[in-house]
Amino acid sequence: MLSKKRKFESPATAAAAGGDSDEFEPLPTIGRQRIDEALKEADESLATIEQNAKQMRRKLREQAAMIRGLITSSGGQLMVTGRLDDEIEIKVGGTVLCVPRKPLLLPGVSESIIAYLLLYHLEGLPKDTEGRPFLDADPVYTDWLFDEIAKVGSADAQRETHEIVLAPPHDTDSSSLFWHSLLFASKTGLDIHMPAAAPSPDGDDHDNMHVDEAQQLEGGEAAEGGEKGDAVDGMAALSKSIASLDASVGRLGAAEDRLMQFSKLVKPLLASGVGQGDEIRSVRVRGKTVSTTEATLGAAVQSTSSEHLFRVVDFARRKRITQPDCLVMPPAASNAKQMQVDTEMYGLKHEPFCSGLAGGDLVIETAEEWDEVLKMTGKTSPMPSLLYKGSRDTYAFPKLLQCVAGKSGLLFALQDGDTHRFGTFIDGQIVPPADPTQTTGNYKVPLFFYSLSGAYDAPTKIELPEERQMVEVAGTRGAVKAKNVDRHGNLCIARGHLWLGMAKPGPAADVSSCSQLLNEQYLPGGYRGEISESGYGRLAAQRDFTASEIEIWHIKQWLSRPYGTTSTQQTHS
Asked: Coiled-coil regions in this chain (predicted)?
């Protein structure tokens, strides 16, 4: 039994009345040991719960202040303001654009980075000389996106729907793919709300816990039904409150994580807060205005065509804004040689760029090679990101497994010396066995090989029969055994056509010890290498070799058309 009956009052009211002191009289001694022990244990448990609850409420307020600071420190607003029928005017890369406000709140748009940015963080963007918010992005793509958002609003007004999907020529343009991935295809996971109703007339700040009529009724019935019923109902209410608290704390943690991720993504687009790099630089070339921030391109504008200048500036933007390990393609133009000259005139290398990668050397060296290899995958508007690079992450097999865990669509790129570059695309996952001392056995997964140089003069796809499209993975303390020979490795691809971490007896100390061969019948025309007496060729310089580099890229897709196909060849992933 509880020692004392109380009328119902909220925790905030109780705290105000009694402060941190114990407001209960001492427990009476019954005189029976087991009953007195149970009373004491229950009372101490309730006191501990009460004390922990007070600590959690203090931490909850600290977390609320942290979340508020996370929003406001980057110029964010706590609530959406402005009329629904208004437009938002913004300058994008030198072009003034407008987007209607209401469609930003509609399903299919409200989850995007651009909607959250414009509705909550518009004032956090740099300002041009007229005080207009400036978005350092591709104005051509953004103009298209704003038109699509307006179409969503028009369709909604007619009780119809409109899906925003990249269309030609944007769906094969590296710049549009980049900006679409960042501004629209990336989802915040955050809710957008219109301003809440005005505070209640009684001035209550609603900091107290709310109790509905059923709870009050239950409390009254418990008081009338005796102390035992009060205790039972109290335990039920406590359990319900704990479950509610656990769910609420989980939602708060998820919201905080999503706000931090949003801030990380858009930070390069927002004003620095100290004016560093925020100045908007504009230049008119042959009647066209190109604008960017000082942080993107600090060099003075030199003589070039407006088209090439626009593409150079956009390349610099994408390099600055992209997330670590994401691939940024250099600008393309009909006059490729002049485009390269104009890019390098601004101190930029005209080559694929991977953010956060010291040195920048990649196995797939040029945009043209990337274009060919990505077409081979058949993936829908792919966006490559680097999961693993041996020279950076070490060639330890456990590290490789850690880097690729949970990712599907793995593009391996290997280099053997200065001459031979090749790889394989595995349209699935590398999944180690549950027992680290065993192997997975061969499991089916679509795959093919490709050569970039050495074995072929140009990027070439090597397809295999379905029965060869297998992968076997060893555990971190296990080994895959080669057939008919005393050799073992960490990873066996295509039934022995490529081994990583192979040695005799093996496995090798690291995955750079490789072995590779292909049956002559699988090799397309144009092969420049040797064919062994047993009828095998190879994509490396030698069958057994130490890879000078191994990269594994995640090839993710999110559009409705395979990369490099025409609009009449649509498929769905």
From this structure: 32-66
For residue 4, being part of any structural domain is answered with no
Q: Is the pTM higher than 0.90?
A: no
| CA nearest neighbour of 103 among 92, 93, 114 | 114
Q: How many domains does the chain have?
A: 1
- Structure tokens that stand for 563 in this block: 């990369």
Q: For residue 506, is it left (φ>0), alpha (ψ between -120 and 50) or beta?
A: left
The two three-digit tokens of residue 40, written as one number: 């004491």
358: in domain: no
Contact 395, 512 (CB under 8 A): yes
Q: What are phi and psi of 460, to 5 degrees?
A: -135, 135
Query: What domain range is 528 assigned to?
Result: 363-557
* pLDDT tens for each residue of the chain, 573 residues long: 344 444 434 444 444 444 445 577 888 888 889 998 999 998 888 889 999 999 999 999 999 999 999 888 878 888 888 888 899 999 999 899 999 999 999 999 999 999 999 999 999 999 998 999 999 999 999 999 999 999 999 999 999 999 999 888 888 889 999 999 999 998 999 888 765 543 433 344 433 333 343 444 344 444 444 555 566 677 888 888 889 989 999 999 999 999 999 999 999 999 987 667 788 888 877 777 888 888 887 666 666 788 898 899 999 999 999 999 999 999 998 899 999 998 988 888 999 999 888 666 899 999 999 999 999 999 888 889 999 999 999 999 999 999 999 999 999 999 999 999 999 999 999 999 999 999 999 999 999 999 999 999 999 999 999 999 999 999 999 999 998 889 999 999 999 999 999 999 989 999 999 999 999 999 999 999 999 999 999 999 999 999 999 999 999 876 443 333 333 333 333
| Environment class of 206 (CB within 10 Å of its CB; exposed 0-12, middle 13-18, buried 19+) | exposed
Helix (H) or strand (E) holding 348, with range, is none
Long-range contact pairs involving 341-344 (C-beta distance under 8 Å, separation at least 24): 342/304, 342/305, 342/308, 342/309, 342/312, 343/312, 343/315
- Whether residue 484 is contained in a domain is answered as yes
- Tell me the residue type at 148: E
Q: Residues 109, 152: contact at Cβ < 8 Å?
A: yes
In a domain, residue 43? The reply is no
